[in-house]
Design a protein that fits this description.
Elements: E1 11-14, E2 17-24, E3 42-46, H1 50-53, E4 65-72, E5 81-87, E6 93-98, E7 101-107, E8 113-116, E9 127-134, H2 148-153, E10 179-185, E11 189-199, E12 202-211, E13 218-226, E14 229-237, E15 242-249, E16 263-271, E17 274-283, E18 288-291, E19 294-297, E20 300-302, E21 304-308, H3 322-335, E22 339-341, H4 349-358, E23 361-365, H5 378-395, E24 401-405, H6 421-437, E25 443-444, H7 457-460, E26 464-467, H8 479-497, E27 501-505, H9 524-540, E28 544-550, E29 555-556, E30 566-567, H10 581-590
Parallel strand pairs: 21-22, 21-28, 22-23, 23-24, 24-25, 26-27, 27-28
Antiparallel strand pairs: 1-10, 2-3, 2-4, 4-9, 5-8, 5-10, 6-7, 6-9, 11-12, 12-15, 13-14, 13-16, 16-17, 18-19, 19-20, 29-30
Helix pairs in contact: 3-4, 5-6, 8-9, 9-10
Bound molecules: alpha-D-glucopyranuronic acid.
Alpha-D-glucopyranuronic acid binds near residues 168, 409, 448 and 567.
Length: about 600
Amino acid sequence: MLYPQTNRRRMIQELNGFWELKIDRDDSGRNNNWKNGFNKDAIIGVPGSWNEQLSEIGLMDYVGSIWYQRQFYIQPQSIRKQYVLRFDSADFSAEVWLNGQWIGKHQGGFLPFEFEISEFVKEDQPNRLTVCVDNRLNHDTIPQGIFTDDYIEFGKQRDQSYPSTVFDFMAYGGLNRSVRLLVLPAVYMEKVNIDTQIHDSTGILYYRAEFSDNLLDNEIIISVYDEETCIDKRRVKEVSKMLEGQIEIKKCEFWCPDNPKLYSLQFELFEGGYLLDEYSIEFGIREIKLHKNKILLNGDPIFLKGFGKHEDFPVLGKGLSHPLIIKDFELMKWIGANSFRTSHYPYSEEIMQMADRTGFLIIDEVPAVSMNFKYVTDKTLQNHKTVLTELINRDRNHPSVIAWSVANEPGIWGEKEAVSSNADKYWKEIFNHVKKMDISRPITLPTCAVWKNRDIAYKYSDFISVNRYWGWYEMPGEIEKAGAKLKEELLSLFKLYHKPILLSEFGADTVEGLHSTYPQLFSEEYQTDLINEYFKVIKSLPFTIGEHIWNFADFRTAQHHRRIVVNKKGVFNRQREPKSAAFMIRKYWTKK
Ligand code: GCU
């Protein structure tokens, strides 16, 4: 699925803006034929989560179905066009109708999906687009749903949040990213896979392109551009639905954080000498490898300095905002970071594009977060593989993506099933599924401390990622002791597995303006000193490959007595203002 593009043969009609909304508390919308239109309850801004923008009508903690509708027009076309409706995300699932006709549905809240609607769309009259979005989860979904009975079964009633979420972030709902109508040629490019290799100073680009249908009397011109200069052009005649090849770029500038060099690959599709379609895709030539307990980028060791993040902003919720994307990248550059993990779900395509352009190294994660293995089923496994397939298909061309993260902290409830032979079989299948799709990138799975060195993730991960809170959830107030415990644990993990280790999470909840002359949890000094202690331990060990502080910014969670509306482990608050730790971190990460 290609990211939408306007060019000589492709048009985009943005469907963002004000939509009409109707709350479907009793799931009666289908029986009442809301697909044919409904009397609105409210107006909602798209892209954006419904929770904060409509909290005054009770949607902050709403879990269920919400219906959206809007109209759009299309102009008569002189030649046949294909019309494709693309949703960049709908959280958590969506069902779509056009002019009352059922178009399709999609499950998964963080990846794009599209429907070809050419047979349903009408020229010269209003087209009614109706979408039913549902943010309910269940035991089989990724992320997993968790319920009161489950908390009672585990004697963890006090841990239950409102709404009930097994993970520590807000279960936002809505059309969180763009909705667009793509006006495409009768036959168009559907997909391009890019892989790159390096041989001395030569970069090698491997491409595989797929088209929507067979082309008659066709010719394809494939060009590589360095900025505006065409550095390679070739013609291929009589192509079938798929085209693959490779191009060598001599004296190539390799992509890296200090020089995020991007070239562009252009395909021009001709049929009978007429330009039918064209598509240009940016690419970076780089190679990522694990070698002697280091991550090598283009043969040189790199150290990952950065954060676990969230897509979470005041009022927008998970809503897409270009200025806020820029703000986060500017702050990460300011603080000296070079990397982040898309904790705990795929981020927007726009964020991935910015990482390519600014040279950030991304660990790309699916929303298999805090899975309780007592409730995992074959359906869960199938859904897990589906979301991995969709993620890798969407993001495999980004040079910024250096690793896949297949889950976060499974087994955090201490359920024995998490270390059972079934769990081992589950993870073996998951890791193999990723390797079958992409052998070019390492795979990891950030773990919690519950299972100590018995966590199955260590067996299958190419590099180990650990989320550790010594000095916060365990040994609170004792920063040095926490540092010693961390060092002891990392040494024993390395001795057992001989794999490089990323500290994928560490940090402390911090209230801006709270200060202390002694180690006081929630004070700015405590966050600064605890993070500094982890830096010291990480720096002292030869097998650590990075440090991702948790979290870049404060973020909203479901309601719970342990959270003051937000998780306050941010180095920046939710409005992106720095806490004092940010200045220590900046000094540490930017010193030459
Ligand atoms: C876990 C988890 C995060 C969570 C964090 C915390 O490690 O991965 O999602 O926010 O702990 O408790 O702050």
